[in-house]
Specification:
This protein starts with a helix and ends with a strand. It has 109 residues and is an alpha+beta fold. The protein is built from two helices and seven strands; from the N terminus they run ααβββββββ.
Length: 109
């Protein structure tokens, strides 16, 4: 009985990576750091692929766009130069990744 239980645990434990690989793609926004020179937005992705960010001012005008291909899953950072941003204004952004959009916002300093 003890041997059977160990075999079951070993078998179930080996399914973890297979189950994780079948999960749908997802982007997670972790943090936003704002300084006088740069805005850094940290994010994680569950699969490699193209990630695009669109930044809008408080009037809805697009002020910045950038895309990058990440070859693997993991943690990454978009760095946005602060010079076109007006201190005190609120900016919204969305990430586009694998057909989905993920939103956030920050105030420029």
């Amino acid at each position: 009985m003890k041997t059977l239980l160990i075999a079951i645990l070993i078998t179930l434990g080996s399914l973890g990576p297979i189950i994780a690989q079948n999960a749908p793609p997802r982007l997670y926004i972790n943090s936003t750091r704002v300084s006088a020179t740069v805005v850094e937005i940290d994010y994680d992705i569950t699969y490699g692929g193209f990630v695009e960010i669109h930044l809008f001012d408080q009037d809805g005008k697009k002020v910045w766009i950038k895309g990058v291909v990440n070859q693997k899953l993991g943690s990454f950072t978009f760095r946005i130069p602060a010079r076109p941003l007006k201190p005190g204004d609120r900016y919204t952004y969305f990430f586009r990744y694998k057909g989905s959009e993920y939103n956030g916002s920050f105030y420029a300093t």
